[in-house]
From TrEMBL:
Protein name as catalogued: Nuclear transport factor 2 family protein
Organism this protein belongs to: Spirosoma pollinicola
Superkingdom: Bacteria
Length: 116
């Protein structure tokens, strides 16, 4: 993929999340062999497992005040998204600015890491 193609894909991914459709973005843009490292440093592999965990996380949300992209950067086959997140979960509030680093392969995200 070119940087322009990744930019368009990231823009669409962000738009889907903004519409409350993060799992639609996941289905479209994530590779079957995705490797994802969460803020807690735990790494998970495989689209089926990560999709299951994503649905569990979404079911845990009680209220969303903000879940927006503040900025994006695309360089070569890597994208960076800065997210502003302010929501309540069953475990309590989550208020964080995080950076997602995504590596793209074959038009999809093959590796994703979160940092806050």
């Amino acid at each position: 993929m070119t940087e322009a193609q990744i930019t368009a894909a990231v823009d669409e991914l962000v738009a889907l999340v903004a519409k409350g459709k993060p799992m639609d973005a996941f289905e479209k843009f994530y590779h079957n062999d995705i490797e994802k490292t969460d803020l807690d440093g735990i790494t998970h592999q495989g689209k089926v497992l990560i999709e299951k965990l994503g649905h569990e996380q979404l079911a845990n949300i009680r209220q969303v005040r903000d879940f927006s992209a503040l900025a994006t950067v695309i360089k070569s086959n890597r994208s960076f998204i800065v997210w502003s997140i302010d929501l309540d979960t069953m475990q309590g509030p989550l208020n964080v600015v995080e950076v997602t680093i995504q590596d793209w392969q074959d038009g999809q995200i093959i590796r994703e890491r979160y940092f806050a």
